[in-house]
Amino acid sequence: MSKQSALLSATSSSLLLEVVDGALVIQHWGAPVHGDLASVQTAIRPSIANSSWDQPQFPGFMRESSRGFLGRPTLSGHRNGKAWSTKFEVTDFHHQGNHVAVTLRDFHAELEVVVAFDLDQYGVLFQRATVKNLADSEYCLNEFIHWLPLPKEATQTLDFAGRWSNERNPQRKEIATGTWVRESREGRSGHNFSIADIALTEQTSFQSGNAWATSIAWSGNSHYLVEKLFDGSQSIGAGELLLPGELILSSGQSYEAPALVSVFSAQGLDGVSAAYHSYLRARDIHPQRPRPLTLNMWEALYFDHNEEKIKALVDVAAEVGIERVVLDDGWFHSRRNDRAGLGDWVIDPAVWPNGLSPIIEYINDKGIEFGLWFEGEMVNPDSDLYRAHPEWILHEADRVPPLWRHQLVLDIGHEGAFNHVLEQTSAVLADHNIAYIKWDHNRVLVDAGHLGAAGVRRQTQAIYRLFAELKKRHTGLEIESCASGGARIDLGVIDLVDRFWTSDNNDALERQTIQRWTAQVIAPELLGTHIGPTHGHQTGRTLELSMRATTALFGHAGIEWDITEATPEERKHLATWAQYYKNNRALLHSGKMVRVDYPEPHAYLHGVVAHDASRAIFAYVQLNPTVSIHPSPLKFPSLDESTNYVIKAVFPAGKPRFMLITPPEWMAGITLSGSALSAIGVTAPILAPANAFLIEISKA
Ligand code: DGJ
Questions:
Q1: Which residue's CA is the closest to the ligand 1 atom numbered 1?
Q2: Whether residue 275 is found in the same domain as residue 308
C-alpha cells in the first residue's frame, strides 16, 4: 500500500482509505479485508466510458464538483457569493492503529477540514469532522454531510418514521437512481427521526445478510441521505440540517459536525444492533448500577397531585418491589393542568404546602429512590417567567410561534434563560434527595429564531451544556430524555442521559414494535419499558397482565399504572415479575439481543442470549391469530450448537390466554442441544392474539 493509505480493521469490518491525486478516497467500507492491498487502487481504477472524462476522476470524501463529482457534495457554503466551489487537497495524513486523522485544505477558498475515522473493536465506525475558516472574511456554511460509499449489493434502505405514540415504524424500500432524504426539522430529533438509516441487500434479515447502518449523533435538525447517481455509484450519509445562515464562521472559527456512527454487519440487523449495543455498553458513562425497577405515577395521577393517593401508590409499590418512584408533571407553580406553569420551577404550595421533602422521605423510608419531572426548555404564556421575559422565547421578528400544548419554546441559547432554568432546577435538586429527573420536551420548534438568526443549533448545544452542568453539580444524578415519549432518542444526547422514555404509548402490543426497532440502535437497558394499565390509556385496548409484563421486561422495566386498583392476584403477579426482573436484569442488560426471523407474520420471537451462550430468555409474542393450526416451530439462534440446554416456559406474571386443549409438552421443560434448538426448534403454542410468555433456556 502507498504511504498515504490506511486500513482500519475490526473482526467484522474494514475501512480502507487512500489519498489519490490529492483527494481522500474511501476505497472500501464493508467486509474485513486482509493481506496485500497495494494494488487495490489499480484493481478498481475506473475505465473511461464513451462521452466521458478524459481522465478518471476521484471526487473522494469531499465529493467536489472540481473533481468531477455530479452528486451532492460533502460541504457546501460560500463567502459572500465567493468560495462557492472547493478543491481540497490532503495536507496531512496521520494513521495509527484504527485511527486516521486527515487534514484537507483549500488554499483558494481558505478553508480547512480535519476529518477523523475511528473503528472500534465492535466494528463501530466513528466519523468526526471540523471545518475551519482560515480567511479574514466570514464563511457561511450551508451543509456538511458525512458520506460512506455503498456497494451495488446494497439495493434497499431501511429507515424509520413515526408520530406521537407510534414511533419507529420501519420503512424498507428499493434504492433507485436519485436521492432519498429523511429530514428532521422539529428542533429535536423527533418522533419521525430515523434512529438509523440502513442499507441492505434484498435478502438481509435479522439474523443474516449484509447491512450498512449509519446513525447521526445529534439531537437537533438533521438529515439522512441515500444517493444513487446515474453513473451507478451510491452512498449513504447524514449530517446536521443547518437553517439558512445558521452557521456563519468568523475568521479562525471552526464548526464541529455531529459525528456519524456507522456499522457494517454481515450478520444481519441483529449484527448491527450487537455492535451499537457493545459500543454503548463500553462507554465509561454507561449506567453501571442495576437499572432500578421504576413506578412512574403519571398515568395514575396525571395533574391530580394528592399526597394521600401518592402514599397509597407508594405502599403498593413497596409491596411489589419497586425501587424508584417518579413524580411526573404537575408539582410546580400553578401547574394544575397543561395550560400554565412551565418555566416556574418552584414547588407549588397549593398542592405541596409542606414542600416535597415529606413525600420524598416517605418514599425513601421504604428503601425507594425518588425521581422528579421537568420540562426546562419550555414556557407557558401563563407563567411568571413569560410575564417577566416574553422576549426569552425562540421566535422570529415580532411573531409569536403557534402554540403547541399551550406552550412555547424557551430560548435557552439566551444566557439569561439558560441560567434561569439551570438555577431553578438546580435549587430543587440541591434541596431534595432526588436520584433521577425525567426531562421532557413536548413540542416542536418552529420559526425558532435567536436574536434574529436561526437558533436550533444553539438551542441543541445549550441543552447539552445544561444536562452536563446539572450532572456536574449533582453527582450521581440520572437523567431520562423524554420528549412526548420517544422524540429525543439519539446518539447525540445519549452521552448525557441514562435512560430514554421510549414512547408515551404503554399499550404492550404497540410497544412490541416500538421497542423492537428503537433497540435497533439503543441498548435495551437505556429504554424505559413500563407495564401500562389494564385498559390502555392511549389505545383503550385491554391486555392481559402477562402480555404487558412480558413486554416491559425487555428494557429498563417499570410500571405506569394505578396499582392501587390492581387486584390482590395482580399484585402477587407484579411482585413475582418484579423479582424475576431483578434476578435476570444482569442478563437482560448485557446479553445479545436476538430477533428471530420467525417465518410467519402472526408472531415475534425475540430475546437476549448471554455472551457466553450459557443462558437465554426469549419471549414468544402472538400478535395476531395464526392462520394454520400448527404454526412454525420456535427456533433459537445464537446458542452454542454442541451444548445441551434445558428449555422451558415461565410465567412470572401469570399465564397468557392459550387457545389450546393441551399445550406443547416441552413447555414444562426438556433438554435439547443448541443445534436442535436452532435447526429443529420446539412447537409453537397457539395463544389468543396479543398474548405472550417467556421462554428460559439454560445450560443443562
Ligand atoms: C409527555 C411524557 O412523555 C409523559 O410521559 C408525561 O411525562 C407527560 N409529558 C407529562 O406532561
A1: 484
A2: no
